[in-house]
Amino acid sequence: MSMPTIFHHIYHFYFNYHQYDMHSIISTSIFSRRIQFAVRMTVSFLVGGFLAYGTPLNDHLELQYLIFLMSMLSIQETFGMTLFVSYQMLTAITPISILLYIVQRIGLGYKDYLVGELILLISSLFVSYKCSQVLTRKIALLFIVVFFSTIINQDNLPSTFVFILLERFVIGMAVSVIVSLLVFPLFATFDIENRVNYCLKNLQQMQTIIIKAFLCEDQMSAQVSLAQASTIEQMIRTTMNLITTRLVEATIEPSRCLQRIFNRRHRHLIDLTIQEQEDFITSLMFHTSSLQLMVKHCRFNEYHTHYTRELRATLLHLDLCQTTVISSLLSSSAINRDEFNGRLASLQQAMDTLREVSIKARLHQVEHVLESGLIIRSEDFLSHAFFLFQIAAIVRILMRVTTVDENRSFFQEIKDRRKKKQKKKRRTLLEWIKPQWPQFLSAFKSMVIIGVGSIFVMVPRLAKVFENGQWIFIALCMTQGDTVGGALTTMKMRLIGTLFGAMWAYITYLAVSDNVYHTFGMLVPWILFFGYLKSLSQWGYAATVACFTPVIITLGRIPYGDTLPAGNYALLRIEENLVGIAVAIVLTIIIFPVFAIDVLKNNIETTLQLCRQCVNTMHAIYDKLFQNEQLDVTTVTIEKQTDQEITSFIDAQRSRFHQLISGQRALIGNTSLEPSFWWFKNSFASDRYSMLAEQQTDMFRMLHNIDAILLRIYECSNTSETHIKTLQFDCIDLWSSYFTLTQTRFFRIFRNCSFTYAKLNESDLLKHKQCLVELHQTVYRLQNQHQESVNRLFDHYHDCLTQGESLSDFVPYADNNNVYIIFIGIAALYYSTTQLARNALALGTNIHTIFELETTSLYRPF
Which residues cross the membrane (predicted)? Predict the structure, then answer.
């Protein structure tokens, strides 16, 4: 291996920009990313330690732990997120520090309990109301808590104490930003591109396996391949979950500049913004998953066997050509545009050949049916058309994203982005001033919790018992959450992290006593280990607490020397956290509680309404493309938009849907910790709600397919469209109303500001049952109508044949590709409509079961 190649490997590994044919599995794995993050956190700790103990900043040793604390709290997995969090925290604590400086200059000082309590409450209310992000709110409250707990209990503090405190916070944040930029930097932009490349590579592998399953001649052989495809699909979904979050983090990074620097070899092949990449990969995922769905429900009968035998060679050749194109996009070695255009031309030619072969195969089937008098099942006919449509849609997507506008300059992109920002609707002054009552109630709750925590600091007897009670105060501050379930999850993680950290702090003291440098040596491997665990979703905040707890216990007690033995200090830390968490549990539940189950149901209701909006969009697209005057759609106005704007609108809906589903999955975990027995007849059915998220995805996928079909064809069936309209207005509204009616009274009062209470009754159950019966009837009615349409079509063919016409004369798509595209599109539309009804039926059945579990005593556990 040559030196330039070695340097290239190191260069891409260090900056976390990967080509999957170039690097080893170890260098591109999640293990390496976690190790790199652990190294960043450890380096941040060491740099903070040098600044705290090796510079003139060590004149306030009792505050030095704040540098370590802030550097470890501020550093995030990506540079964009670290910078974003640090910026938000800085903008939150800077005005507060100015206010507190004025307050201190006016006269607030040692043992001014009453005035201090009043100012503490006012400032915490303001911070909680203005800071919408949980971490930013916690850090701003921590700043206030440290200021008041210090100034009330210590005499002779300098008048600039608040700025000394601010300095420690800013230094910690600056350390985290610099380390995140210089030590194995992971830009959110690169992480998105890495994830997109990974998903693209595995989606192609998944499609190859699905095609292999489709070409099988029996169900059992296909199931083996489908099991492999399902495993790959789950890996892809896990990888895609964070892309939406990374898009937010990348807004603070120079994304296009980074792409131009690191993606020079492939910009002439594909040049998409990170948002366009997200749209590209999610659309590709939808169509590939639809292929998998079709094969899963495919009937491996004689019709399928004859049809696939004729398509086998052409379909495998198409898959090979597509694999070659995707390999070109992911390859570390650059190819010129002419060579790549040749590969694209081969892919398009393979698609055209597949279309021609499929036409011949269908003509053979028609001829065979007319000669033998057999009946083709509509499901066989429609499902194969649906499969071919998905294959063609994937090819079209690849052809579209690889079309590069070479005349578009970097500055033109900046101008276009600025124009888009100007088009966005800005909030008016009235909207800025108008109070947000749910947010105000949440801020008031935070203020009360902070006020209760201050009792342990400002009441002399309690402060003496708990060594000033500072850590109880901080525990109450740092365990707050947007929901009861989220707060309880944070409390559980904080307790676990505190126990681990306190034990290691005591071991460190026994090993090295109060020697600062030896203490650092003991803490480095600990931070490295838990920095690795922090990237794991099940550890997260617990690992963060486990990292900084031994730092605070060992280095935080050094200024006090032997007056406070390390063993007592560690036990005191555990005791104060236990007291703080116990108090926080009570206050979180009794003061304006917002339960995660209510937020989850609100999310599900929003998702269902988004599905209904998608159906309305479908009607509007139909009206625009085909000038249909029969429908009156007023909820979605896209009549004056271009086809590209319609596509962008659909992409935005799909992105919004993914955000909602990701939120649902997170809320399910938080809800499982809440006392659901207070309002449900049975315990929280987490498995049912997880299944509900998957069923909503299946339903939305079919809606997306119908949109894609309507954008592709020039002719549509009124019958299928009418059934979709019925599904929308009869079923989705009913299901949405259930999740609204079963929310707790606390949520309706404190979040929705609604004091009315509508009780559920037995008639609601009857409505659900009637809805499910109608869905069953819809599925059968669609199947019968499709079968009748196929029968009428072949009766017409038979009449033409008996009149002496040749097959190519009366089969309209025999010699016309455009007609064949319309024919395939209409068949795929029929199939999608039937699957939509089936998915709606499965979704409604699950909702009905949840309805019964939560509101009736029909199911009782042992």
Answer: 37-58, 78-101, 135-153, 165-188, 440-459, 471-488, 495-511, 540-558, 578-600
Q: At residue 720, what is the residue type?
A: S
Measure the CA–CA gap between 217 and 210, rounded to whole angstroms. 13
Residue 434 φ/ψ region, left for φ over 0, alpha for ψ in the -120 to 50 degree band, beta for the rest: beta
The burial class, CB within 10 Å (0-12 / 13-18 / 19+), for 90 is middle
Q: How far apart are CA 58 and CA 360, in angstroms?
A: 84
Residue 782 to residues 75, 359, 367, 775, 834: CA-CA distances in angstroms?
56, 25, 26, 10, 6
Question: CA 776 from chain center: how many Å?
Answer: 33
The structure tokens 């891409």 sit at 12
Instruction: Report the alpha-carbon distance of residue 448 to residue 709 in Å, rounded.
Output: 55
**Rounded to whole angstroms, what are the CA distances from 344 to 311, 321, 323?**
21, 8, 11
Taking only the tens place, the pLDDT of each residue in 668-679 is 888 888 877 677
pTM, full prediction = 0.84
What does the block give as tokens for 47? Answer: 């740099």
Measured CA to CA, the distance from residue 449 to residue 121 in angstroms comes to: 10
Crossing angle of the two packed helices 686-712 and 817-855, in degrees rounded to 10? 160
Task: Say how far apart CA 573 and CA 575 lie, in whole Å.
Answer: 5
Q: Which two tokens stand for residue 65?
A: 């732990």
Please name each of the domains of the chain with its CATH number: 3-16+27-185+440-590 (no CATH), 188-252+271-401 (1.20.58.220), 596-628+635-673+682-854 (1.20.58)
Q: Mean pLDDT lowest for which of 24-28, 614-618, 683-687? A: 24-28
